Amino acid sequence: MRLISGRAAPAVHRSRAPGPLRVAMPVAPAAAGEHGSKDPAHQGIAEAASGPGGIATLVLELPPEVIPPPPAAAEATVAPPDGAAAALAAADVPVVNNVVTAPGISALAAAAAAEPETVASAAPAEAAAATTTAAPEPGAVPSTSGGGAAAAAGAPAPSTTSTSADGPFALVRSVPLAGGRLDIVRWRGERMLRIWTPPGYSRSDAAREPYPVMYLNDGQNLFDAKLSLSGHAWHAAEAAAEGIGSGQLPPFVIVGIDHSGATRSYDYLPYPPGTAGGARLDAEQWPGGGVDTYLAAVRDEIMPYAERAYGVSTVPSMRGFGGSSFGGVCALMAAMRLPGVFGSFLVESPSLWFGDEKLLREELPTHPGPWPARVFLAMGTKEYTGIRKTKEKEADAAAFDAKLVEYTHELADLLEARGLTRGLRMQVEVEKGATHTESAWAGRLPRALAFLGVHWWRPLLRRRADALFFFAPRKLHAGQNAVLFFNQAKSAVLADRPADSLHMNFGFNIDWSVGAGRAALAPAPGPAAMRREAAMRTAQARAEQAVLQAKASQATAAAAAAAAAAAAPPAPLAEAALTQAATPGGKDNIVGDPEEEEGFDAAGSAIWLAAPFTVPAEAYEMHLAFSDGPPHSGSQVLWDNNAGSNFYVRVKMDMTAAQKSHNVEQAMQEAPAWGDVQAIAHKRGGSMYFTTPEVLVAGAPAVLYVNRCRTRGLASNPNLRVLFGFNSWSTGSQEMHLRPTSLWRGQDIDWWSTTLTVPPDASDLSFVLTDGHGIWDNNAGNNYVLPVKQSRSGAGGGDAAPKIKPRGVKSVESMPHAAGTMHIVELTKRQGSEADRRTAKWTEEKRLRVWTPPGFDAANPPPGGYPVLWMQDGQNMFEDWLAHQGVSWRVGYTASDLITRGELPPFVVVAVDSAGAMRSLNYLPYPPGTGAGGFRGDAERWPGGGLEAYMGRLVEEIMPLVQERFSVSSDPAKVAFGGGSFAGVAALYAAMHYPHVFGCVLAESPSLWIAEGRFLQDMRCHRGMLPERLFLGCGTREYSATRDHDRDDVDGLLLNYCQEAAAILDSQGMRGGRLRFLVEEGAGHHELAWQWRLTGAMRFLFNAWWDE
User: Fold this and answer.
1) Residue 540, domain member (yes or no)
2) What b/e string do you get for 400-410 counting C-beta neighbours within 10 Å, with b at 16 or more?
3) Nearest-angstrom CA–CA distance, 527 and 998
4) Which InterPro entries match (predicted)?
C-alpha cells in the first residue's frame, strides 16, 4: 500500500466481472513469407485466413479484465497480457470493430496465453542515466511500474533494453513544431508516442525542475491533420505554445499516445459499445473490454519512459490525462482505475451512450472514490447530426444530440456531488453548434489547458517566492519567444507603485546595442487565475463553515429544548456537528490536489506581473531595468536597475544541427564555419581579425576579415592592404587590398575583408597589414599567424590522397587523488610534414591531467555532461613535488572538499601541461618585452604571439577528445577557463574572444605589464560578448614577494594594472554580481597565493552550476 499526500492510497476499485466476450475479425490471407512465426497465435490466424475466398472470420473469446495489481518493488516486469490481447497483437493484420457470435477460436486464445511474454519498461541509455541525478519531487508518487518501484526502493534502474516483442522505445524522428520539438517515438510495432516539448526545453532543466505533463489519447490526431481521420488535428502544440507564450501556463510537455487503429474501441472501453438503442448501429459489432490492460500499459510502460527520458513530473497534481469520444471514456476509466495517479482530466465529448449507459448508470454512481482534483468536461449540441447524414428521422437525430448533452449534465451533476465544484474543480462547457470532430476539440483546447494547468504554477511560484523576476522558459534562447515574470513585492523601489504604471526596459548585447525596447508589465494571466481561484475556494470554505455552524446552532438549540423538556443536561452536539466525517463528496475524497501536496498559499502569494518579448537571433546576453512610468512623462521616474548596474541575463545560443552531429575527427580536421558571417562577427567583436571558415582548411577558399579600428596606425587609413604567405612565408606570398564590408559597424568595430585560396600543402598563414606607403602593423614584429587544417581527404584534396590522422589519446594512467581519480592522458604526436613536427615538438600540448570527482561515472553523467574547469600550467595544479616552485594550486583537494561538503556540484578539472620554455609563446598574444621602465629585463627575449593558435588547438582538438572520453559538458554555462600569471593573461583573452566557449573565467595575477600595457588597451577596445562570471585576483606584493629586494613602485604598478582591468570589465557590463575582484594584502605572485584564493574563487564562479 503506497502513500499519497500523507494518506494510504485506497485499494483499486474493481468492477463486477462481465462474462466472456467474443470478438470477430475478418482476416485477409497472408502474402508469401509474411507469417513465418512459430507463435501459435500467428500460425492459427494464418491458417484461418487461407480458407475459400481468401477471407476468414476469427473469433477471440476475451476474458474479463481488470487492472493488474502493482508488482513487488524488486520486480522489473508488468503482468503479461492475456491470451486475447497477445493474439490481437500477434495477428499483425487489419482488424475491424465487430462483436458477433461464432464458434471455434477459444483454443487459439488459450494457446496464446500458454506462452506469455514478459514486457519490461524501457528507456534510452541517456534517459536511464538521467534518473541517477534527478532529485525526487515533493509529493511525488512512486511509479507503479517495476522500474519505478525498484528505483523507489533503491534498487538498480531497470534495463535500458526492452524484452518486449514489440521492441524498445526508439526515437524515429524529431521535428520543430510551434517553437518546441515533436519527437516521434516507437512504442509497439507501428504504434507511436508523439511527445511535444515546449520552447526552451532542456533535459538538464527537467532534471532540476520536472515539467508538468499532459498524457492524451489518439496521438495521431493531436499534431498532424494528415494523420487524422477527419482531416483536422487538435493543434495541441500550437495551443500549448500560445498558453505558455502568453503567461497563461508554465512550460509543460504533451505525451500523445497513438490509438491502435481498428481495435481502438477495445483499448478505450470497458465493454462493447452496443448501438445506443439503435442510434449507433454502425457500432454494433465493435469490441470493448481492453481498457484495463491499456491503462496498465500507460501506467507501467509509457509513464516511466516519459519520466526518465523527458524529465516529466511524477507528482499527481502535475500530471493530466485526457481524450475525446471513446478516448474521453478512457479518461473517466483512468480516474476510477488509477486513483491518485493523475490530478486532472480532459474529457471531451465522451461517448456515454456506449454499453447501454452502464458506465453512467452503474459504475460511476457506485465508485467510492477518490476523485481527481480537476476535470474539464465538454460537449457540443450537434455531436451526432453535425458529422453524418442520418437515415433516421430528423427529430430522432436531434433527440440523440439532446440526449448526449443530457448525459453530459448528468455526469457533471454526479461529479459535483462528489466534491468537484463547478468553476473550481470542474469546468463544464456545452458549446452550441459544436460537432464530434477534432476541429471542435481543437477550438476548446486552449481553454481546457488553461483550466487544467492553472495549478501547475504552484510549485514554480513557491520556489521563486523570493525572486525579483524569472523567465519562462527558465533560460533565454536566441531567436525564441519568452515571458518575463516580475514580483513587484520584492522590488525595493517599486513595491508601492501602481502596478499598471510599471514597465520593463531591455536591450541585448553590449551597450544594449541589439533589440532595445520597452514593454508594459501587466498581471500575469496564469498566476492571476490561480489567485482568483484560491479566493473563490476561501469564500466557498467560509460559506460551508457558516452553514455548518448554523446547523450546529440549530442542533444545539433543539437538543437544549429536548433536554429541558426531559429535565436532562443537553448533549454537546455543536462540536460533533462541526467535526463530522466528510461525505463522499467532500475534500477528503479528492486526490491530486496541489494545495495539499505543495503547501502553497495561492491566495496570499505575490502578485506577479508579466511581459512577453522575443529574443533576437543574434543575442548573447540581455540587460534590463524596471521603471514606473514613461521616461519623458514629465514626472519623476523611479528605477529598479540593480543599483545602477542593470540586470544581466545570459542568452543561450543553441548549437546548430551541424555542431551537434560534429564528431571529434571532423572537429579536428574540418573545423567548418558554423553560422553566418554576421553571427561570427558578433562573436568575434573583440578581435582584430577572423576568417571564414573560422579555421582555415588546406586547398579551400577563405575570407579574411580585419577590424580596421583595432589595427595599429591604420585605423582611419582608407588604403588598407594585407601581405600574406603560407608555411612561414615559404609559399604563396602575395599582397591584396582589403575592402569595406556590410557587416554591422559600431564603436571600435569596422570590418574590412578580402578573399584568398589556401594552398593544398599549407600548414599556416602569416600576414601583416600595411597602407603601401611605409605604415605597417606586423604584430610588434611577430606577424599574425593562423593555423591551417588539412581537409578530410588530406593534403592535395584528391580522393586517393592519404587522410591525415587527427591527434588522439596515446595512453591513460589513472590513480587515486583527493578522494577522486587522477588520469594522466598522453596525447599522440601531430602528423604532417617534418617542419610541422619540429614546430609541434616545442609548442604543442603533450599531456593532460584530468581529475574526476568522487562518484564520477562517465557512462551516467548529469544531463548535459559534467561541469568542467580547464586550467593551464597543468604541472602546477595538483602536487607540490611537481610544481616549479615546490607549491601547487592543490586544485584537486580544494574541489574535492567543496564537492564532498555539498557546496558545489560534482565537476571535472582538466589541466593542460604547459610547453615549458615556450610557455610564453602559447599564453601571450605578443612578446612580453621588459615592462614599463624595464623592470623585467629577464623577459626581453621571451617569445609570444601564439595564444590564438593555442586557443584554437585547445578548443578544436583537445576539448572534443576530453568531452568524448570523460562526458564533460560543452555548454558554456558549465565550462570554465583558468590560469595565473601569463596564463592569467590567457584567461582574460579567453574572456574576450571565447566567451561562447567558456562561461566562467578565473584570472589570477595576470601579467598585464606585457608589451608596456598593450593588453589593457586591447581590453578597452573590446565591444563584444563577455563571460557570465569572472574572478580576478591579485596581491599587493606581486613583484617584491618573490625577489630578494623590494620594489614598492613596481608592486603599485602591477596592482594598478589589475585595478584598471577590473574597471574596464565593469564598464563593459561585468557588474551586478558577475565580476569579483579580490586584492589580497601582502600576497605575492606565486602558487601559494593562488591556492589560498582558490576556494573563494570556486564558490563564486561555480555555485551557479547547481542551477545548470
Assistant:
1) no
2) bbebbeebbeb
3) 36
4) AB_hydrolase_fold, CBM25, Esterase-like, Ig-like_fold, Mycobacterial_A85_antigen
Confidence of residue 779 (pLDDT cuts 50, 70, 90): confident
Q: Which helix (H) or strand (E) holds 400?
A: helix 394-417
Q: Count Cα atoms within 13 angstroms, Cβ side, for 815.
A: 7
- pLDDT at residue 547, rounded to an integer: 79
Mean pLDDT of 994-1006: 94
Strands (E), 847-906: 847-852, 868-872
pLDDT of residue 655: 52
CA distances from 817 to 814, 876, 879, 899, 907 (A): 9, 15, 10, 14, 14
**Cβ(664)–Cβ(961) below 8 Å:** yes
Which H or E run contains 1102? helix 1087-1102
* Cα angle, residue 246 at apex, residues 245 and 249 outer, rounded to 5°: 80
Find the length of the chain.
1108
Instruction: Name the domain count of the chain.
Output: 4
Report d(CA 213, CA 321) in Å as an integer.
9
In a domain, 447, yes or no: yes
Non-local (6+) Cβ contacts of 827 within 8 A are 807, 808, 809, 810, 845, 846, 847, 848, 958, 961
Domain identity same for 844 and 957 = yes
Torsional class of 837: left (φ above 0), alpha (ψ -120 to 50), beta (otherwise): alpha
Task: Please state, in angstroms and rounded to a whole number, the distance separating the CA atoms of residues 1018 and 1010.
Answer: 12
**Rounded mean pLDDT, 740-754:** 82
pTM score of the predicted model: 0.70
| Predicted pLDDT at 806 | 65
- What does each C-alpha distance from 993 to 867, 924, 925, 988 come to in angstroms? 21, 13, 12, 9
Cell representation of residue 499: 502596478
Query: What stretches of 954-1047 show up as alpha helix (H) in DSSP?
Result: 959-966, 982-993, 1014-1021
CA distance 654 to 488: 31
Is 764 in a helix, a strand, or coil? strand
Q: Which domain holds residue 756?
A: 671-789
Residues 772, 900 share a domain: no
| CATH number reported for the structural domain that contains residue 778 in this entry | 2.60.40.1930
pLDDT tens sequence across 311-357: 999 999 999 999 999 999 999 999 999 999 999 999 999 999 999 89
Residue 773 is placed in which grid cell? 606607403
Q: What is the pLDDT of residue 50?
A: 42
Residue 268, C-beta contacts closer than 8 angstroms, at least 6 positions apart: 217, 259, 288, 291, 294, 323, 326, 327, 329, 330
Name the burial class of residue 1090, with classes exposed (0-12), middle (13-18) and buried (19+) by CB atoms within 10 angstroms of its CB. buried
DSSP of 490-548: G-TTTTTS-GGG-EEEEEESGGG-EEEEEEE-EE-HHHHHHHHHHHHHHHHHHHHHHHH
3-state DSSP call for residue 721?
strand
Q: Chain-wide mean pLDDT for the chain?
A: 79
